[in-house]
Design a protein that fits this description.
Length: 273
């Protein structure tokens, strides 16, 4: 899975850009929304850290989808409003790629569920929706059951915000509780954890401090990837996929759904992906 952040240009084109400003990742300056697509195409992407200029330009959503067709699942990170989701799905559907797309939105109460459900209905079917629940707004694992009944998702992304720069979670918080694992088994959905880094934030910002930095830079993969796998995570979103896969496989966490001797069957107990 690759995460692709979506914004709009001044003239309404859906483009791929994480930041609302162009300064960090391109040779241009200012806000994305103030540039037309033609103007954005004159910007060059730069290497983070060194700011070395590349020959790559800002991509449209359509261009990104065409490049990734039949190669990898696309997780659309909507940087716009919920009401913009149908337009994004329409682009994917026009290319015959709706089934290759995952859409995610934050959910925190019943009103938000209603709003997102309406957007999903407007977008039509044929794509995957995976909700996000964060422990700054949701403290009861039972809310996952409400979400499951509303959307029947294949996975729910759970966020354990890092409490402080020097703090590592000891439990994973209320969303990685025994009850949440029971909800996942009952609803037959994956628990999705995020260990990737956030720019200008403490390490493991979405994972209670137990992120990729702890696993790789501090050489403590068991305290990061192993910690979340032990608390029910069957999907880990990481910036270190090769290292994570190697460690999880070597330590018995990553088990294939099927081998060559038997056909694949639906798995009720999921493996680390």
């Amino acid at each position: 899975i690759v995460e692709v952040d979506i914004r709009r240009s001044k003239d309404g084109e859906l483009i791929v850009m994480h930041d609302s400003w162009l300064d960090r990742t391109t040779t241009c300056k200012g806000e994305v929304i103030n540039y037309t697509l033609a103007e954005l195409k004159r910007c060059r992407l730069v290497i983070e850290g060194t700011h070395a200029v590349t020959n790559e330009t800002v991509s449209t959503l359509r261009e990104m989808l065409m490049t990734t067709r039949d190669r990898i699942l696309i997780n659309l990170d909507n940087k716009l409003e919920v009401g913009d989701l149908p337009g994004m799905i329409a682009v994917a559907r026009d290319l015959g790629m709706a089934e290759q797309v995952i859409v995610k939105e934050n959910l925190w109460n019943q009103n938000r569920i209603i709003t997102v459900k309406a957007a999903m209905a407007a977008a039509g079917g044929g794509f995957q929706f995976m909700p996000i629940i964060a422990d700054d707004a949701v403290h009861d694992a039972g809310f996952a059951s409400t979400v499951d009944h509303a959307f029947a998702p294949g996975a729910i992304e759970l966020i354990n915000w890092r409490a402080g720069a020097e703090t590592l979670t000891e439990t994973g918080g209320p969303l990685f509780s025994t009850r949440m694992r029971a909800e996942a088994v009952r609803g037959d959905w994956h628990i999705w954890a995020d260990t990737y880094a956030i720019v200008n934030k403490p390490g493991g910002f979405l994972a209670g401090g137990r992120g990729d930095e702890l696993a790789v830079q501090a050489s403590s993969p068991r305290e990061a990837w192993g910690f979340w796998a032990d608390r029910g995570a069957t999907i880990i979103q990481t910036d270190e996929p090769k290292a994570a896969i190697a460690w999880l496989a070597a330590n018995g966490y990553r088990v294939p759904y099927a081998d060559e001797k038997r056909p694949a069957e639906p798995a009720h107990t999921a493996s680390i992906n």
